Amino acid sequence: MLFKIGFLEIGWTDILDIVVVTFIFYRLYLVMRGTIAIQIFLGLLVIVAGSFVASSLELKAVSWILKTMADVWVIAFIILFQPELRRLLVLLGRGRLMGNLIRSSMDETIDAIVEACDEMAQRQIGALIVIPRSTGIRMIIESGIALGAEVSKQLLLSIFNPKAPLHDGAVVIKDRIVQAARCTLPLSNQLRIDSFIMGMRHRSAMGISEQTDAITIVVSEETGIISVAEDGMLRRNLTSEQLRDLLRQGLNVNVKSIFEAPFKQDIGGASPKE
Q: Whole-model pTM?
């Protein structure tokens, strides 16, 4: 026993228990932050807290109702938070033992994205790719066509082929998987940045970057210019190597703004709408 508070005896196991529970709840909060799931989670916490209060006050009817709900809350929790629990397990797996494997997989994903964007830029094929980070964008994913396929250069080129049925809209890539295609993004209220007049793709990229912390890549159909939007900022005229470096920095575990990279931002002059 370390110390005693009233009738409570606190030992090392109690401290460890509190730390573990705190860590679990903190990771759950990080995973669910920005999604509707956090509201459901808070509702479950209210039910559990209410059950303790009712039991303490000996409110038998209320206690029975809350106990009945609590009996199935574990199953309901698993069903409601299945995507979030999967993400939590992924985060827990990103320790030192898994670091090299995860880094290698992410490098392969980034290379596939960069190579696809480079080829689409050369062929002047329009593209819009969203890579979410901590902020949930489930509503965006659900607005498109679910795919669930591993990222590859060939897949991205097929999706954005002008004759393909899924080429309109955005592709969402998360955890090295193309979650959905033909997704609808919110439009930014900005119409231009300095002398550059933004079209639908760039306004969409800016719109999602203003509302979330996602990284969004745009390939202009008119000019073949590669751009990246993040935190309400737009960087244009990127080379393949610059795009690769920005993605590696932006998708790092210790996330920093990709606009801190030592590249000169070039928003270009007036351009046709894209």
A: 0.57
